[in-house]
Amino acid sequence: MYVAVKGGETAINNAHKLLADRRRGDRDIDALSLAQIKEQLALAVDRVMAEGSLYDRDLAALSIKQSRGDMIEAIFLLRAYRTTLPRFGYSQPINTGEMKIERRISATYKDLPGGQMLGPTFDYTHRLLDPDLAQDEATDEPVTRKPDVGRTQRVSEILANEGLIEDDGKNGHGAEEPGDITRTPTEFPMSRDERLQSLSRGDEGFLLSLAYSTQRGYARSHPFVGEIRIGEVDVEIEVPELGVSVLIGRVQVTECQMVNQFQGSAKVPPQFTRGYGLVFGQLERKAMAMSLCDRALRARELGEDIVAPAQDEEFVIAHSDNVQATGFVEHLKLPHYVDFQAELGIVRQMRREYAETNDAVSSMIKEAAE
Amino acid sequence: MSDTKDSRRNRMAVLAMSDTATLVEFWKTLGVDPEFTMPRSPQTGIIGVRGRIGGGGDAFNFGEATVTRATVKLASGFVGHAYALGRDHTKAKLSAIIDALALDETWSARIENEIITPLQNRIKARDQKRAGETAATKVDFFTMVRGED
After folding, report:
1. Shortest CB distance from B134 goes to which of A59, A117, A171?
2. How buried is A344 (Cβ within 10 angstroms: 0-12 exposed, 13-18 middle, 19+ buried)?
3. 3-state DSSP assignment of residue B64
4. Which residues, at least 6 apart from B19, have a Cβ–Cβ distance to it below 8 Å?
């Protein structure tokens, strides 16, 4: 039974006013501009876009400002906004092979064609706090060098030439049109295309921990980073009015090709298997975690024993969405007065019965002793 | 009609990739203000963005992106379209006007030379600059020889 409870409007209004005040903070300090958030907290913006599943830097910056930097709240805001927009269909699949590369590394080949390009990375920094950043110190312009021309070959293509690695990957259902978890309710088991969609918008922390668990022995897969590349890719859509595919802009993505231990069967000779990660923005950790989780979740397909949490599709996918997770965890703080009254009644009843039983037992023991 | 499918695709792409301020700046140099109606006013929606498993395998949806589109009809009868990532209505409207006007032979050459080509050059310059910055972070390995030979 639900009982409507009214009241608290004034308290709620005042709480929201207080929130607005605390969000703004000390009025003597300049307000943050969205441009500042976009430019200087770019990786926070990227994370909100990836997990909010909406590529729009301005909206992601706004949601970060509105949420006072609470990332899950920001992601929630972006997801909610998404649902208000009409859908214009789907893009052509992006071609990461033609990416405008900003960073590209491989842990499997030192001298790979195209080379190792470090890009704007935290790697090899000393992780010492830099007091200069406490002030607005002038920053040098980056160094430039004449770039190589042409496409950068994928590491998977190098291995594929020798037949040492499996093909790029099938969705598992055979249909050309991929599934879309935002349009159809989730059903288990999922196909790999739907699983990748869930992982791409999944919580970075959750996927990172699961990926870590596979390295510590819970579904070990002996991974190597075949290649990570970050950069902009063209987005094209079919324009129905013209009957042609037209470029409508670029998005920045991070792609991780994880290369894992060989499989073999009666039909296929031993070869490296693969896990794939693809996310919006510059989110290397997330793309790596995603590729490790993708590989672990292929256990059934590859005939491996399912022994660890990271291989359990329902466990991983059903709990990876932080908007769903926060909704269910945080709903506990909403009024449960009636539920709780009922439970209070039950506990009182049980305690009464317990006391009566105890009294009866102790008087029996007493009688027996006498 | 002088306009081929390819040049139109290129034009729409360049307009989509350019920012509004630059677009307005180049448009003003053309000094034209055509009459038009809008069969479809600028409208923002989302598209599902697709990737391919492993980079080149089967397609999958991995996120959505905001897109704005517009359709403009000039008094001369030419119809222009615009589609671009983001939510910029001014840009969509102006892009559709430029697309429509480029279908008119009186204007097509000037639009190509005074708007599309310079915009494309800006995009190329930005790409070139970024590629150069990335190239400077390329690792040059050298091998240290140890011990006696």
Report:
1. A117
2. exposed
3. strand
4. B91
Q: Is residue A343 part of a domain?
A: no
Q: Give the closest of B63, B84, B133 to A144, CB-based.
A: B133
> How far is the C-alpha of A366 from the C-alpha of A132, rounded, in Å?
79
> Is B54–A101 a contact, with Cβ atoms under 8 angstroms apart?
no
Domain of A35, in residue numbers: 9-24+31-82
pLDDT at B148 over 70: no
A201 and A270 assigned to the same domain:
yes
Q: Which helix (H) or strand (E) holds A64?
A: helix A57-66
- Asked if A55 and B85 come within 8 Å (Cβ–Cβ), the reply is yes
Amino acid residing at B105: E
Q: Which of A184, A247, A282, A291 to mutate to test the interface with B (most CBs of B within 10 A)?
A: A247
Between residues 101 and 140 of chain A, which touch chain B (CB distance below 8 Å)? 101-103, 110-111, 115-119
What does DSSP assign to residue A370?
Answer: -
Q: Are the Cβ atoms of A91 and B65 closer than 8 angstroms?
A: yes
Give the minimum alpha-carbon distance from B57 to chain A in angstroms, rounded to a whole number: 5
Kindly list the distances between the CA atom of residue A179 and the CA atoms of A77, A87, A167, A198, A274, in Å, as whole numbers in the listed order: 25, 16, 20, 11, 21
Q: Render pLDDT for A240-254 as a digit per residue (tens, 0 to 9).
A: 889 999 999 999 999
The string of pLDDT tens digits covering residues A170-222 is 888 888 899 999 999 989 999 999 999 999 999 999 999 999 999 999 998 88
Q: 3-state SS of chain A: helix, strand, coil percent to 5?
A: 45, 15, 40
Q: Are residues A60 and A206 in the same domain?
A: no
Complex prediction ipTM: 0.94
CA atoms lying within 13 Å on the CB side of residue B113: 5
Q: Are A54 and B63 in contact (CB < 8 Å)? A: yes
Q: Of A274, A302, A319, which residue is a domain's last?
A: A319
Q: Which residues of B touch A89 (CB under 8 A)?
A: 47-48
Closest residue, chain B, to A89 (C-alpha): B47
Number of domains in chain A: 2
Strand partners, B80: B72
Q: How far apart are CA B124 and CA A149, in angstroms?
A: 13
Structural domain includes residue A110: yes
**pLDDT for the residue numbered B82:** 97
Does residue A51 sit in the same domain as residue A107? no
Q: Provide the pLDDT for residue A1.
A: 58
Residue B149 distance to chain A (closest CA, Å): 24
User: Looking at residue A368, what is its pLDDT?
Assistant: 85
